[in-house]
Predict the structure.
Amino acid sequence: MKRGLDLVIVGGGPAGLTAYIYAARARLRTLLVEKFSPGGQILNTDRVENYPGFPEGISGAELMERFLAQARNLGLEPLLDEATGLTQDGDLYLVHLGSGETLVSPTVIVATGAGPKRLGVPGERELTGKGVSYCATCDGPFFRDEVVAVVGGGNTAVQESVFLTRFARKVYLIHRRDQLRATRILQERAFADPKIEFVWNSVVTEILGEDKVQGVRIKNVRTGEERVLEVGGVFIFIGIRPHTEWLEGVLALDEGGFIITDAEMRTSLPGVFAAGDVRAKSCRQIVTAVGDGATAAYMAELYLLERRT
C-alpha cells in the first residue's frame, strides 16, 4: 500500500490536471492516476474554439500539452494505472488499482471523464476499427476521397462532420430528428458545406460489411422506410457514458451512471469529490471541467484542514 498522501486524483483530463495544479499549489501531497496518458479525450479534438484566451482557436493536443507543462512545473509525475475500486478503512479511502497496488488517502477526486456511447446495432462491434470509429481526428485521414457517414446531431457530430470534409468526398450526417442540437455557429458551417448531406429523422439499424464497412442500413422514424447508404466509414457521436463502473454501489450515481455532487463537487461520501464530465451536470465543456477541478481541489484542501482541527 502507498500511504502518506493527502489526495489521490483519478483521471488526467482537463478536470484532473486542473485539480492537480490547485492541489500542488496548496502544497498537498498529491498523486494523479491516469489509465492511459494525461490529457483525456480532448487530445483527439482537432480544434478548440470556445476556450477563453485563444481567439484563433487551438488544437486539443496543444491545449492539453500546455495544461501538462504547467502541472509538470508543479511536480506532476502521474501514475499510469487503472482505478478498479474504492473502499473505506476508517476515515481513509483505499483506491485499488489494476496493477494490484492500493493507494491510501483521506481525500479522493474522481475525474475519470466519459467515453462514447455505442449504437448497439448489428455490425458495430464486429467492424469497430474496420471502418467504425468514434474519433474523426484519429481516423479521418484513412477515408480520403471516400463516402462516410456520421451519426448524431450534437456539437461533436456536427464539428466532426465538418472536419471529415477535409478528407472524404461526401459526408452523410444522419440524425434521428429534423433539426440539429449543435450550437448555431457549428450548424451554419455544416449547412454551408456542399460535401455534407443531411439525412433527417433517421436511425442506423445495421452496419454492413464483412472485413470492412461497406454501408449502413437506415430507417426513417416517421415513415418506417428503410434504405441502404453505401459508405466506407461510420463515425458515431451519439453521446457519452461516464467511466464509473468501478464506483457502482460506492457513490450515489444518477440513472445515466454519472456521479451526483453538490455545487462544491462533494459526493455522497465525505472527502470524496468528483469533477468534469464524470459528474451529473447540464454542461460538459473544457471550461466547466476546469472549474470543477479547481473547486474540487479547493474543497479537498478545506476538508483536510477541518479534519486536522
Q: What stands out?
A: DSSP finds seven helices and 18 strands in the chain. The chain has a mean pLDDT of 96.
